[in-house]
Write a structure and sequence with these properties.
Blueprint: E1 4-8, E2 18-27, E3 32-35, E4 42-46, E5 52-54, E6 60-62, E7 66-69, E8 76-79, E9 83-91, H1 97-100, E10 111-113, H2 114-118, H3 122-131, H4 134-152, H5 162-166, H6 170-180, H7 185-203, H8 209-216, H9 221-232, E11 244-251, E12 254-261, E13 267-274, E14 278-282, E15 291-297, E16 300-309, E17 312-320
Antiparallel strand pairs: 1-2, 2-9, 3-8, 4-7, 4-9, 5-6, 5-8, 7-10, 11-12, 12-13, 13-14, 14-15, 15-16, 16-17
Helix pairs in contact: 4-7, 7-8
């Protein structure tokens, strides 16, 4: 099965609550990925075999076929167990409250079987619940405005500003955010800024971590590093390292290279060049990188990514040498 990911706009009846509808299909047996916080809850329907997820204490367990995923404040590590076919409803930051019907903070960092929330008729009632939730809309409209303000400012809005915007004091705002969004205004701002760091890494991979921190609105690199470790479970390692999940899988009589830098949604690059010492993968629609190449020079492995940034050619190259387990830094 050729890997495929797509997003589409929600039905107008759901647009007040839903950011997008997405779908992913692919053969990725045994592949692991770390999903970072993104400030939004999701409704997930597994058409294939559900993912395993790693619990906070370490053991793996299978997800429910139909589930509600609350806000994340730490990475969610998933592992496929065969062909996957997933449909997701990605809510707006303040949009899921109308569907869940309870305090959103009770769902934070949890994946909840849909039947636990609404019983066997959950899927059939979802559309009607969101469409007819006039009372809920009245309750969340002010908080939604605050969340939109935080998103629009790319997480830079001072904490004191959203409260007056909603006509609430700071403590009232904190309580209402816990009820409607599931995380605090400050945490939402941190999540948004970290997403900006990922974008800076994508658009300018040669930049320093200090430059990325400044571009994302962090006060300095140490502040970013603390939030990075807290939300992603790792650290920029003195400003010189990042993490990326990579895998190569067979698909449609060729091979596909899946790249997931910093835990972002995996992007496919199809094999376009292969020899005993060299392999190249391409995705012309992606921009940067549009092409990924690996080749051998003696005992060294070299890698190069190429593409365009702001309509200008760009490329970054790495050189890797053999190492041992002793060369690897300890886990943070």
């Amino acid at each position: 099965m050729a890997p495929h990911y797509e997003e589409r706009d929600p039905d107008p009846a759901l647009a007040a609550h839903v950011h997008c509808i997405w779908r992913f299909e692919g053969d990725e047996d045994g592949a692991e990925q770390a999903v970072p916080p993104d400030g939004r809850c999701e409704l997930i329907a597994h058409g294939g075999r559900p993912y395993d997820e790693r619990g906070a204490s370490g053991p793996w367990h299978a997800q429910a076929p139909l589930l509600f995923a609350g806000q994340l404040t730490r990475p969610l590590v998933l592992r496929s167990r065969g062909p996957v076919a997933v449909i997701g409803v990605r809510f707006k930051p303040a949009g899921a409250w109308a569907f869940v019907g309870s305090t959103m903070s009770s769902c934070t960092d949890l994946r909840i079987d849909l039947a636990t929330l609404h019983g066997d008729g959950a899927i059939a009632s979802l559309r009607a619940q969101l469409r007819d939730s006039a009372d809920a809309r009245e309750r969340i409209v002010a908080i939604e405005a605050c969340a939109d303000r935080i998103l629009a400012s790319e997480g830079r809005v001072p904490l004191a500003e959203p409260g007056p915007l909603a006509g609430l004091g700071e403590r009232q705002l904190q309580r209402r955010f816990a009820e409607v969004v599931g995380i605090s205004p400050r945490m939402l701002g941190v999540v948004v800024r970290l997403r900006r760091v990922f974008e800076a890494l994508r658009d300018a991979p040669w930049s320093t971590w200090s430059e990325r921190a400044q571009a994302a609105g962090f006060f300095d690199h140490p502040q970013m590093a603390r939030d990075f470790r807290r939300l992603l479970g790792t650290a920029p390692s003195k400003g010189k390292a990042s993490f990326e999940n990579l895998r190569i899988a067979a698909s449609d009589e060729t091979w596909t290279y899946w790249a997931s830098p910093m835990g972002r949604t995996p992007v496919p690059f199809r094999l376009v060049e292969a020899s005993a010492q060299r392999a190249g993968f391409a995705n012309p629609e992606y921009g940067f990188p549009a092409r990924i190449v690996y080749w051998r020079e003696g005992d060294e492995l070299l890698a190069r990514i190429e593409g365009t940034i702001k309509d200008k050619p760009a490329a970054v190259e790495w050189r890797f040498a053999k190492g041992t387990a002793a060369d690897c830094p300890p886990s943070p």
